[in-house]
């Protein structure tokens, strides 16, 4: 029989509990890897992506010769590292004559490759190349805004795919409430053509506007680069359906007899059973009488008075 190992210590149990499936998953971690050969541009890009996601990222500096995305058999080591570090996103950088300054961004489901986007980096500008007041520098771990400019993000398949991947990569943890003072950065993505996206990172500067809502100004803080889409692979249909499943505990139950209207809002129906007033017994019990007298009175009311004839005596 197959022997299943169980954790022996409390620390091992806690570590296994962290990576176990949850009803509400925590923020996604990103794995950053280097290929067999990388250029100075790719090294800078990977370092700055790690800096932008420093709270939820794992970076390996060792060269990986056996990782080949988009090739059969070349994703085994990538899935192993994803399982080892418990990362569901990865960024893989490489450089070759055929594909210079190459960047592969992908997602995993259950530590198996879900989808991939391969882009080429052009016109890269690092954070050090921008001069601005350091007081307005974004804080590490702050929640960002996203601005996607261009109709191609809604119509073209490649741009729609890279939009989903970039949102997953930089959006951070899901929150229910936001503090306006904590929103200090925005990622601006502009569709230059059908396969080219201009990506830049800006800081938000709040100024007085005379109203409650402040006036927002953008200060470019970097990094900034052009992403040229080279290849992309969508998720398999069966894997996509499996990843979209929702736990029964999280599904919203339908409210009975409740409807919603645009004008009146939430409308409910209340059902009241018919009241049989005529058949309801009405007690006639006086509280001032004693129990015996009350019972005798109720018995006397049920009988009718009959005159008895006197018996005739025999003469």
Automatic annotation (TrEMBL):
InterPro entries: Brix (IPR007109), Rpf2 (IPR039770). The lineage of its organism: Eukaryota, Viridiplantae, Streptophyta, Embryophyta, Tracheophyta. Transmembrane segments: none annotated. The keyword Phosphoprotein does not apply. Belongs to the RPF2 family. Residues 276-315 are annotated as: Disordered. Residues 292-315 have a biased composition (Basic and acidic residues). This is Ribosome production factor 2 homolog. Residues 28-238 form the Brix domain. One of its GO terms (cellular component) is nucleolus. The keyword Nucleus applies. Pfam families: Brix. It is found in: Nucleus, Nucleolus. Keywords: Nucleus. One of its GO terms (molecular function) is rRNA binding. GO terms for biological process: maturation of LSU-rRNA from tricistronic rRNA transcript (SSU-rRNA, 5.8S rRNA, LSU-rRNA); ribosomal large subunit assembly.
């Amino acid at each position: 029989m197959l022997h299943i190992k169980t954790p022996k210590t409390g620390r091992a149990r806690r570590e296994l509990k962290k990576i176990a499936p949850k009803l509400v998953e925590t923020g996604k971690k990103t794995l950053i890897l280097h290929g067999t050969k990388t250029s100075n541009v790719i090294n800078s890009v990977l370092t700055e992506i790690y800096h932008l996601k420093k709270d939820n990222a794992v970076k390996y500096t060792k060269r990986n010769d056996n990782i080949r995305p988009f090739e059969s058999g070349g994703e085994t080591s990538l899935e192993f590292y994803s399982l080892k570090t418990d990362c569901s996103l990865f960024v893989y950088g490489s450089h070759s004559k055929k594909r210079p300054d190459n960047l592969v961004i992908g997602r995993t489901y259950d530590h198996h490759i879900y989808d991939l986007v391969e882009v080429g980096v052009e016109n890269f500008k690092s954070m050090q190349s921008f001069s601005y007041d350091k007081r307005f520098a974004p804080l590490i771990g702050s929640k960002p805004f996203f601005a996607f400019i261009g109709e191609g993000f809604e119509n073209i398949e490649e741009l729609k795919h890279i939009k989903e991947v970039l949102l997953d990569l930089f959006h951070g943890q899901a929150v229910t409430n936001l503090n306006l003072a904590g929103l200090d950065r925005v990622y601006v993505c502009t569709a230059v053509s059908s396969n080219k996206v201009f990506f830049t990172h800006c800081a938000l500067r709040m100024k007085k506007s005379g109203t409650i809502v402040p006036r927002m100004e953008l200060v470019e803080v970097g990094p900034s680069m052009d992403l040229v889409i080279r290849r992309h692979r969508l998720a398999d249909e069966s894997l996509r359906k499996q990843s979209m499943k929702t736990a029964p505990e999280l599904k919203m139950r339908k409210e009975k007899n409740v409807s919603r209207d645009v004008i009146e809002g939430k409308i409910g129906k209340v059902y009241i059973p018919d009241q049989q007033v005529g058949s309801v017994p009405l007690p006639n019990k006086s509280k001032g009488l004693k129990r015996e007298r009350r019972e005798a009175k109720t018995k006397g009311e049920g009988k009718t008075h009959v005159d008895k004839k006197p018996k005739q005596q025999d003469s």
